[in-house]
């Protein structure tokens, strides 16, 4: 947890194997600085089976956590907000390339992992700036008293069909190709993340998840949980429990970042909050590489 004169950040996350898979191929990392208004959540949903997916997702989240943990330097702090935003964007772009290459290299060293890859979704908060990036169909949402907004749009076959008017949102949820993604880390030499910047001007909850959660919840159902369940950070546990009650067909990962504006809580000046992690890492047999 971090506190400053005007901003309070708290973060939590959890990953779960679900009720069907034999292994958890998801990986998650999260962190909130103890003294600065800085925090992040990174979730990766691996694919490939035979431990390949778990390796790919672990490479992705570990690569990003190493970079993000070193982001706030004296040079960064001396920059303007616009420059800082550009530095965050650049760090994300560069790290996507680095993680992508690391997964490809691991495939070359381990031919049994030839089909592995991973999705990625991450959120970085610095002061009132939010940067969200994703590759694949792991998602980010933002809830405030104004309601819920799905920040990311899936890189998937069904999303392309929705955009083309060939499929409705309701049809997409039950389509037999709903797990087919069109972009992933570790599949091609070049991969482009979608990166978005937003300004946080009111207290908000950021929810990141793998499709093991979004499989079971539409936006209104997620909004209900985020609006009513307190403490807010414990939404991670409630959402995973409810996804398992609905069948838990896939691994489930959830990260929550709580942004509180105009906090009157005294700043924290000692101690630290270690990065969180969850690495129960299964086989996405129905998710082919593209």
UniProtKB/TrEMBL annotation:
- Pfam families named among the record's database cross-references: PP2C_2
- Region span, Disordered: 268-290
- Annotated PANTHER family: PROTEIN PHOSPHATASE 1L, PROTEIN PHOSPHATASE 2C
- At the top level, the lineage of the source is Bacteria
Ranges of Low complexity composition bias in the record:
268-278
Stated name of the protein: Protein serine/threonine phosphatase
Q: Using the record for this protein, list the coiled-coil segments as residue ranges, or answer none.
A: none
Segments forming domain PPM-type phosphatase: 8-259
Q: Tell me which InterPro entries the record gives.
A: PP2C, PPM-type-like_dom_sf, PPM-type_phosphatase-like_dom
A single GO molecular function term of this UniProt record: protein serine/threonine phosphatase activity
Cite the record's Basic and acidic residues compositional bias ranges.
281-290
Write the lineage as a comma-separated list. Answer: Bacteria, Pseudomonadati, Pseudomonadota, Gammaproteobacteria, Oceanospirillales
């Amino acid at each position: 947890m971090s506190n400053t004169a005007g901003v309070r950040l708290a973060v939590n996350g959890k990953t779960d194997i679900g009720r069907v898979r034999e292994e958890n191929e998801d990986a998650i990392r999260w962190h909130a600085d103890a003294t600065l208004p800085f925090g992040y959540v990174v979730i990766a949903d691996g694919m490939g089976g035979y431990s390949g997916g778990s390796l790919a997702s672990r490479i992705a989240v570990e690569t990003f956590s190493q970079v993000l943990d070193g982001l706030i330097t004296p040079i960064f702090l001396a920059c303007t907000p616009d420059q800082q935003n550009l530095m965050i964007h650049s760090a994300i772009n560069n790290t996507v390339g680095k993680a992508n290459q690391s997964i490809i290299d691991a495939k070359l060293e381990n031919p049994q992992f030839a089909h592995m890859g991973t999705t990625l979704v991450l959120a970085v908060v610095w002061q009132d700036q939010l940067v969200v990036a994703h590759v694949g169909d792991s998602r980010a949402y933002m809830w405030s008293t104004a309601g819920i907004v799905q920040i990311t749009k899936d890189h998937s076959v069904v999303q392309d069909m929705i955009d083309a008017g060939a499929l409705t949102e309701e049809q997409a949820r039950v389509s037999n190709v709903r797990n087919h993604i069109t972009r992933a880390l570790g599949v091609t030499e070049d991969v482009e993340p979608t990166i978005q910047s937003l300004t946080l001007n009111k207290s908000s909850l950021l929810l990141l998840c793998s499709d093991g959660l979004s499989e079971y919840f539409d936006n209104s159902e997620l909004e209900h949980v985020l609006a009513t369940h307190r403490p807010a950070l414990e939404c991670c546990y409630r959402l995973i429990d409810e996804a398992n009650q609905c069948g838990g067909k896939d691994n489930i990962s959830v990260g929550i970042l709580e942004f509180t504006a105009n906090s009157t809580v005294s700043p924290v000046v000692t101690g630290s909050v270690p990065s969180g992690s969850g690495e129960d890492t299964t086989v996405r047999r129905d998710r082919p590489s593209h």
